[in-house]
Design brief:
The complex is a heterodimer. Chain A has one domain. In chain A, about 95% of the residues lie in helices and about 0% in strands. Chain A is built from three helices and no strands. Chain B is mostly helical. Chain B has two domains: about 80 residues, no CATH class; about 190 residues. In chain B, the strands form three sheets. In chain B, strands 4-3-8 form a three-stranded antiparallel beta sheet, with no helix packed on it. In chain B, helix 6 packs antiparallel against helix 8. The chains are: A mainly alpha, B mainly alpha. Chains A and B meet through helix 1 and helix 2 of A and strand 8, helix 3, helix 4, helix 5 and helix 6 of B.
Chain lengths: ~170, ~350
């Protein structure tokens, strides 16, 4: 300890303090501050770049998901449209069929009616014709057989009754 | 494979030792010579660890010639005295300056009479008055060299970082160390909030101690950080910064420890107060003792070469010195790290915010 105190040099202590503080000041101003600032800004830059990359990736994923959604929607829409078209087609066909059937039925009905009418008129014509024929026959009979007048009339009457169409 | 190598290695050593013992038998008559060599080595080691007014690279004791250069002597003794240390002629001559006489004795300057008489006490230390010595000694010179080196190195790193965001050249080696000090010393010990204002001090002290330690291992034979004045100055700076940055909690923990019963508070206050001074004192002694011891051991082992004076012992001690030098390289870094780490820790105590008061 005695030697330690004897060896202690105040001058060296003084110089060390002075030079160290000077060095500290110089280095702080010209080295440490610029170095630490540069390192800090670099680290921040890296951090920012990483964050941005992460953000871009997220955006990309979002975009992809959106695309897929749109695609899915489009597909669903297409499906729906196709289905609708099919439905419409089916409906149209059915409707057409029904209408056709009704029309056909109507036509058949009309045809039937006209046939009936034709038939009736034909019957009437025929009746008239028969009546005329009968009259002619009767005339001829009358002309030919005036002797047996009573018998002839009964016969005509009988024949006319028989000729009546059902 | 490895055990074979080990056996070979051991055999080699056993052979060496036997040769060595034979060699020593032959040299029994040179005991006096050896004692002389031992005394010389002791003197050389003692001189090496001390500061000096000369920068000596080698010294030829046979011709008495010194190879190196003298440094300026600056004394304050009722006025400023300045002269070159070469005037002392390595302590052989008395220097007269403005009517005062000075003598260099064991690297210390003493005020003497015109005849240069020294009154030695029982410890062998002169009783003469010592003028205040502000000389640019070898250590002061080396501090300047280190300062200049650090300034050039780190300002160039700053410049290269300002140009592009990536360091170039030697800065690539130092930049990770700066980041290490920030991320593994300053931030964990001081905290994210306050560490920034201590960074310049921590960086400066780390690199200063490390470079000074490394210069101590060069053949320039300087011993900067193994000098108590240097370590006292460094520890004092840490002490002053710690006390000036101490917040309310820091002082409260010293004088009125929260969370303990009041008799304990009274007992703890002086202990804590002593602790405040012991912490920097330990810093000072730790660095001084480690570097000083390293230098003494290394120098003594190198000195053994001159005692053995044969190629076997010489090469063995050389090997030992080599291994120790590598160890000292590690110690140089380790001590710088410890000093910086503990300084950061003390700053951390000073600025710590105690939100966890009830946890004590």
């Amino acid at each position: 300890m005695d030697k330690l105190i004897n060896d202690f040099s105040f001058g060296l202590f003084f110089w060390q303090i002075l030079l160290f503080i000077l060095l500290l000041w110089l280095l702080t101003k010209y080295a440490w501050k610029p170095i630490l600032d540069a390192v800090n800004s670099r680290e921040e830059g890296i951090k920012e770049a990483l964050e941005q990359a992460e953000k871009a990736r997220e955006e990309m994923a979002e975009l992809k998901a959106g695309n897929e959604k749109i695609l899915k929607e489009a597909r669903a829409e297409r499906e729906a449209m196709l289905k609708e078209a099919r439905d419409i087609k089916d409906k149209l066909i059915t409707e057409a069929k029904d209408e056709a059937k009704i029309q056909a039925n109507n036509m058949i009905e009309m045809a039937k009616n006209s046939i009936e009418l034709e038939k009736q008129s034909a019957i009437t014509d025929l009746k008239n014709h028969v009546a005329e024929l009968s009259v002619e026959i009767a005339e001829k009979v009358i002309k030919k057989e005036l002797s047996a007048k009573d018998q002839q009339l009964d016969l005509i009457k009988k024949m006319l009754d028989e000729a009546t169409l059902k | 494979m490895q055990s074979k190598f080990l056996i070979k290695f051991l055999t080699f050593f056993i052979f060496l030792f036997t040769v060595n013992s034979f060699a020593q038998h032959e040299k029994v008559e040179s005991v006096d010579e050896k004692a002389e060599a031992k005394a010389e080595i002791k003197e050389a080691v003692y001189h090496h660890i001390q500061d000096s007014h000369e920068f000596t690279f080698f010294h030829d004791s046979e011709t008495g010639k010194y190879y190196g250069f003298s440094l300026p002597v600056i004394l304050w003794d009722n006025g400023l005295h300045m002269f070159s240390a070469s005037k002392f002629h390595h302590g052989e001559e008395i220097v007269e300056s403005k009517g005062n006489y000075y003598k260099l004795y064991h690297n210390k300057i003493y005020k003497t009479n015109a005849e240069g008489e020294l009154e030695l006490n029982e410890h062998g230390h002169p009783e003469n008055e010592k003028p205040l010595d502000f000389s640019i000694t070898k250590n002061v010179f080396m501090i300047m060299v280190i300062g200049l080196l650090m300034f050039l190195l780190f300002s160039s790193l700053a410049k290269s970082l300002s140009k592009g965001s990536i360091a170039t050249g030697i800065g690539r080696f130092f930049e990770p160390i700066i980041l290490f000090i920030r991320d593994d010393i300053a931030i964990p010990n001081i905290g994210e909030e306050h560490y920034k204002k201590y960074m310049p001090f921590l960086l400066t002290i780390f690199f200063f101690i490390w470079f000074a330690n490394l210069f101590g291992l060069t053949p320039l034979s300087v011993n900067i950080t193994g000098n108590i004045a240097i370590t006292l100055a460094l520890a004092l700076l840490t002490f002053i910064i710690t006390q000036f940055s101490g917040n309310k909690n820091y002082w409260k923990h010293i004088f009125w420890m929260p969370g303990v019963p009041w008799p304990m508070k009274i007992i703890l206050a002086p202990i804590e107060l002593i602790g405040v001074f012991i912490k920097p004192f330990a810093l000072m002694i730790r660095l001084y003792a480690n570097i000083m011891a390293g230098h003494v051991v290394l120098m003594s082992i190198i000195g053994l070469v001159f005692i053995f004076k044969n190629w076997v012992g010489g090469s063995l001690t050389f090997l030992l010195a080599f291994v120790l030098s590598i160890l000292e390289l590690l110690v140089a870094l380790l001590q710088a790290y410890i000093f910086t780490m503990l300084s950061a820790l003390y700053f951390g105590f000073a600025v710590e915010e105690h939100e966890h008061e009830e946890a004590h």
